[in-house]
Structure formats: structure tokens, C-alpha cells
Fold HIT family protein.
Amino acid sequence: MTECIFCKIIDQEIPSYKVYEDDKVYAFLDITQVTKGHTLLVPKEHVTDIFEYEPALAGEVFARVPLVARALEKAFPEMQGLNIINNNKELAYQSVFHSHIHLIPRYEETDDFSIHFGNNQGKYTAEEMQEIADKIRQQEEA
């Protein structure tokens, strides 16, 4: 993938601030630094998003998340929490189309970062919730 910025970073064609590397993944500081230590974890194999992962690659990549998370926690003992985010497709705020996982350290409530989960609990009946669950489960079984 010659035009992918993350592939170029992995191949050392573009400089980065490397945090971790092994044969499957490369982790580096996000240049935006939403908070100090904001790190991206990317598979070395180019996959666009979560929908393109083979199970073995997903296992390898996601198994590295706790390793990098613990490194952040040790590096920044003042850290009070950590957001782990994986955006997939443009509507879900993916802006670089090489799969990547954000690890965003949280230091205080006023960090320049927020997530909002709407509460639509009253929007669906119990029957509708069961229909939704059944529809998803049927796809996994297919």
C-alpha cells in the first residue's frame, strides 16, 4: 500500500516517535497528542479497518493493547485512566484508512477529549431488543 501514511511510517519512510515494535505491530505517538502519550497501535500488515481483519491478525494486534497500556501507565503514574478507541469507516471518525487503535491517557476531567454515549434505553421495547440481538447472533452463526 504505497500511498498509505501508516505503511510509510512502518517502513520508516516517514519519521515517527516509536513506542513499541515487534513483527506484527508498530506503536507510535499520534502527532495530535490529544493528551500526553496519545499512542497509535497499528498492524504492520495493511488492513483498512476491523472488517478486514483475519482472526489470527486480530488476536495478534489486540493482544498488544494491554502491553502498550501498561507501558503508558508506568511512564505516566499521574495518569488517571485510559481510553482505547478504534474508529472504523468515515462516519465513525476514521480518517486514516489503515486500521489503528488509539490509546489516549486521561489525566483529569478537563482533558481536551470527550465521548458522549446517548441514552436511548426507552427507544426500544423488550421485543425489539430481542429482535436486534437475534439478527446479530444469526449473522455470527452463518
Observations:
- The radius of gyration is 18 Å.
- Residues 5-141 form a domain with the HIT family, subunit A fold (CATH 3.30.428.10).
- Residues 5 and 33 are 17 Å apart (CA to CA).
